[in-house]
Amino acid sequence: MRSHTARTRFLPVIVVISALALGGCASSPGGAGAGSPTASATPTVSEPPSTPVVETTLSDDIDGTKVTPLAIVTDFPAPAGSTAGIHPVLIKVKLEAGDVYGGSVHPSVASITRRNGNLDYISLGLGNPKELVTAMSAAGYTPLQAVPAGKTQTGWIGAWLSDEVTEYDLVYNRDEGKVIGGSKNGETVPASRSITPLTPR
After folding, report:
1. What rounded mean pLDDT belongs to the chain?
2. Where are the beta strands (DSSP E) in the chain?
3. C-beta separation of 157 from 127 below 8 A
């Protein structure tokens, strides 16, 4: 029987200062014979192929983080040299980082697992392995990055699943931790976990 050891994660309090870059816009003076300015066409950015899923938001009621699945890819070609018997699964998610305790929220809080898997025997937080991230990026699936407190980003998480697995869950998992610094220094933050099936629409 595998043993499962709880991990403690320290949550630093971080004050994020955003810099706003202001760009000037020049216009040509009007006059007799002056031609009307022509708007430049904006290139259309096409999304890589994916299947939309039912958008069920997983909410962390303790630190305010929210994760919503948006789309899934189950036929992504495995990079050359990949281990036999497993296949990549990619999930597009929207990550809204909570700001109760500060600090960035990392993509590792979201994991792709087999449907109704026993999470006591599944390693979580292993998404976006290096060899898969390289292939994802080259194909236009931008990997999700760490999101600063109070901000929202959308990106992709990839994981390896056994070939016999054809139905998937998205798991939000944040381990128990302690706050370091600020007015909440030393406060224990209870763990949070929630699950939703990844159901194509």
Report:
1. 83
2. 9-12, 51-52, 58-59, 66-73, 86-96, 110-114, 152-162, 168-174, 177-180, 188-189, 192-197
3. yes
Sheet containing 110-114, strands listed edge to edge, beginning at the edge strand earlier in sequence: 110-114, 168-174, 192-197
pTM above 0.70, yes or no: yes
Q: Which residue has the tokens 């994916």?
A: 50
Which SS3 state, helix, strand or coil, does residue 137 take? helix
177 in Cβ contact with 101 (< 8 Å):
no
Pairing relationship of beta strands 66-73 and 110-114 according to DSSP bridges: unpaired
Q: pLDDT for 123-174, tens place per residue?
A: 999 999 999 999 999 999 999 999 999 999 999 999 999 999 999 999 999 9
Using DSSP's 3-state secondary structure scheme, residue 109 falls into helix
